Amino acid sequence: MVKLSVIVPFYNVQTYAPDTLRSLRANASKDFEFILVDDCSTDGTADILRRARDDIPGTVVIRHEQNGGLATARNTGLDASTGEFITFLDGDDWLAPGYYERLLAAAQDLGCDFVRADHVQVTGRARTVHRVPHGLRGVPFSPREAILPPDRTTSVDYPYAWAGIYHRRLVDRGLLHFTHGLRTAEDRPWIWRLHREAESFAAVGLLGVFYRRGVASSLTQIGDVRQLDFIRAFDQVIDETARDPEADRLLPKAVRTYAAVMAHHLNSIERFEPAVARKLRSLSAAALHRLPQDLLSDTLDSLGDQRAARLRRLRRRPVPAGTVPSVTTGAST
Predict the structure, then answer these.
(1) How does strand 4-10 pair with strand 32-38?
(2) What mean pLDDT is predicted for residues 294-321?
(3) pLDDT tens digits, one per residue of 64-82
(4) Rounded to 5 degrees, what are φ and ψ at 209?
(5) Cα gap 42→174, rounded to integer Å
(6) Residue 31: helix, strand or coil by DSSP?
(7) How many CA atoms lie within 13 A of 103 on its CB side?
(8) Distance, CA of 147 to CA of 19 (rounded, Å)
(9) Burial of 248: CB neighbours in 10 Å, binned 0-12, 13-18, 19+
């Protein structure tokens, strides 16, 4: 039986894919499978993955005929996976040798629905350790309780899918798939759903994932319209949390996080093309009108002068009638 399925989407990363694949080779085991999803790459990535299929034990390569984005590629991998446990990696990141054996052992020892792990962020030559914002280490805990408090950085603010390992029962419960079509912030509704609906999780201090920042082809570096999908992603977070039995307790955190991410994008609006920048302002203004206004007012009072002032200006902006629909219900995954 396969113990661990590793899902790795690739899209036009021929420069970095060899490092990723070498690190998978250094993590191979007879009961691991590596599901490599080529999301319709147009460079040499497909050829690199074909060679890896013969070189790395347990490797399966799946190619999309159309580019669907990271969320859809991960879902393809999930649908093809057979492991008792599941984890993710991005096609331009890499691993320390033997890391997955240690991560799997931690998950088996703890017996939780999912385990979250620290990681190393790599920007050029600089390396920085980023830790799960959860104080208890190696102790099972309620994921729902780890969402709060609203005014602190918590586990839902550490959304990286590849920074953890997940039991297959989460797939069976419909909790591990991503929202199809989201081009960015796809991990935000995902991490919130896990924390609201899973029964147990733990944080561990394992280091072994190296997350490459500053890649020119990464959506975090490209100021095009796909970046604006964060609006749809957080609308989904707000909608699903509003329908939770403990909405009164959890919504303040969701609203605050949405406002903070919105302010972040507006603060760097100069990196967007003019038409996209205009769309960012209009979509953000409409989103602010959709949020629960009492919670939004409380959030702006506590955000800090610069971010709050920027959002208050947008909030006062007139929004044409019919352009502020209520947050959608029943968002599909």
Answers:
(1) parallel
(2) 90
(3) 999 999 999 999 999 999 9
(4) -100, 130
(5) 32
(6) coil
(7) 33
(8) 35
(9) exposed
Q: Find how far residue 203's CA is from the centre of its chain.
A: 17
- Which of 86, 69, 79, 75 shows the shortest CA–CA distance to 10? 69
Q: End-to-end CA distance of the chain, in Å?
A: 28
* pTM, two decimal places: 0.92
| Beta strand spans in 27-106 (E) | 32-38, 59-63, 85-88, 94-95
Angle between helices 247-267 and 274-290 (to 10 degrees): 160
Q: Where are the beta strands (DSSP E) in the chain?
A: 4-10, 32-38, 59-63, 85-88, 94-95, 114-117, 119-123, 126-130, 164-167, 201-204, 209-213
* Three-state SS at 238: helix
Amino acid at 165: I
Closest by CA position to 117, among listed 86, 179, 161: 161
The rounded distance, in Å, linking the Cα atoms of 235 and 241 is 10
